[in-house]
Each structure stands twice: as C-alpha cells, then as structure tokens.
C-alpha cells in the first residue's frame, strides 16, 4: 500500500532535477489536452502538477485559470516560483483528495501521476465531484502503459501501483462520468470522462 509520507519524501527528493529530466512529446500532449477539452475560457485543475510542466500548455490554449496542486512541498514550491507572476495561476501544496478548492472546474487533468494515488476509484469519485456540469476529467500519461510500469519498477516501486489497463480505468470512470476517450497505445495512455 502506498504511504502518503513516502510519496512526499520521494518527490521532494526528485523536485530539484524534475524539469531537467522531463521528456515531452508535443504531439502527445496536444492530443491529451484536446481529449481533455482544455480550451479558451476554461478553468483547469492540474492534479499532481509537479513543477508545473503543463501550465504553459494550458495558458497557450487561453484558459481562464489554472489551479495546480501537488502533495510534494518541493514540487509545489518550484511551481509557485515559476508562475508567481502569472495572472490566473494558483499553485497549492496539498492532497487533491482532501483539499478544499472552494470551487468547481471545467477541466481536471491528472498527467503522469495516476499510479502514485493509492485508491484509483476514490480519486476518480473525488475529482468527478469537483467538475462543473459538462466538465471533463482526464487521467493521462505521455508514454505507453508498459513504459510507465517499467519505469516504476525502479526506485519508484514503493510509491507506485501498476497502471491498470485503460479499459479497466474507463469502467471506473463510467460509474460517475460519461466516458469520452480511451487511448492505450505505444505513445500514450488516456481515459477521459464528461460530467
């Protein structure tokens, strides 16, 4: 069972080098954000935002606001420093499963982070409850499920669950949302659902 303190400690340790070691595929990120319906005027909740790697992508699409949250104080601190002068961007340190955001969102994105949450069903239910009517929740990775699982077999094995098949995650989504995208191929993994 994943322990919250272990996750915090693990990502605090990685935070200083996170951006330098980040691998991005622009075409995959664009497809993920298209499927997540991130577009002009939308409010976005970025769950497990890390150092804010997707915040520039949201802003480039003209969103109205970004609320980014990460449980790692060091990840959140770096993201806060990077975007402190950016209007419409709020970075919080906290647990997305328990934080009081005081509002709902048009788009909720969990990118490259899902295996680090101990209870997938609980997380999906919680985040679905934070969506505006017509809002979209997405869980996505910029690599294949096999690549993510192989990566997590190393030093991250104690803070990661295996990434379930996208079809299984879609079944969890379908309990609370209308599933709008299920992608699992050699380049990406994504499930999206609309409230």
Characterize the structure shown.
There is one protein chain. With 195 residues, this protein is α/β, with parallel strands linked by helices. The protein has a single domain, classed as 3-Layer(aba) Sandwich (Rossmann fold). It is built from seven helices and seven strands. It has a seven-stranded mixed beta sheet, with helices on both faces. Strand 2, helix 4 and strand 3 form a beta-alpha-beta unit.
Rg from Cα: 15 Å
CATH topology: Rossmann fold
Q: Stretches where pLDDT falls below 50 for ≥5 residues?
A: none
User: What is the CATH superfamily?
Assistant: Vaccinia Virus protein VP39
- The SSE order reads HHEHEHEEHEHHEE
Q: What is the CATH architecture assignment?
A: 3-Layer(aba) Sandwich
Query: What's the CATH class, please?
Result: Alpha Beta
How far the N terminus sits from the C terminus, by CA atoms, comes to: 30 Å
How many helices in DSSP terms?
Answer: 7
- The count of β-strands is 7
Question: Structural class, judged by helices and strands?
Answer: alpha/beta
Shape: globular
* Average pLDDT over all residues: 90
What labels describe this entry?
24% strand, globular, Rossmann fold, 195 residues
Mind sketching the topology for me?
Layout: H1 4-14, H2 26-35, E1 43-47, H3 55-60, E2 65-70, H4 73-83, E3 89-93, E4 105-111, H5 120-128, E5 131-141, H6 145-152, H7 166-174, E6 178-184, E7 189-194
Parallel strand pairs: 1-2, 1-4, 2-3, 4-5
Antiparallel strand pairs: 5-7, 6-7
